[in-house]
Write a structure and sequence with these properties.
Largest sheet: none
Helix content: over 70%
Shape: elongated
Number of strands: 0
Length: 57
């Protein structure tokens, strides 16, 4: 389960970065902001999983 969540976090981070970069390239501020939000969600999910790992060991 944790491995699945970690992979999901990485995927969200990557997807967010792509959206952010694309939005910046085409001048679409809402797409850029959406990408930043999605990346932040991925960062938060990854931090949560790392915290769970710390307490698991």
């Amino acid at each position: 389960m944790a491995r699945n969540q970690k992979a999901k976090a990485k995927a969200e981070q990557a997807k967010g970065k792509i959206k952010e970069t694309t939005g910046r390239a085409v001048g679409n501020e809402s797409l850029e902001a959406e990408g930043r939000m999605e990346g932040a969600r991925g960062d938060a999910r990854q931090a949560k999983e790392k915290t769970k790992d710390v307490f698991k060991h």
